[in-house]
Amino acid sequence: MIPGFVQLGILVIFFQVLGIAGFYAYLRWQRPAAGAGSVTRAEWILASGVGLLTLGQLAGLGAIGSLRTAPLLSLRQAMVVQNVSLLAALAGYGIVVVGFVLYSRDSV
Question: What one-character-per-residue DSSP string does 32-71 give?
Answer without folding.
Answer: --SSTTS--HHHHHHHHHHHHHHHHHHHHHHHHHHHHHS-
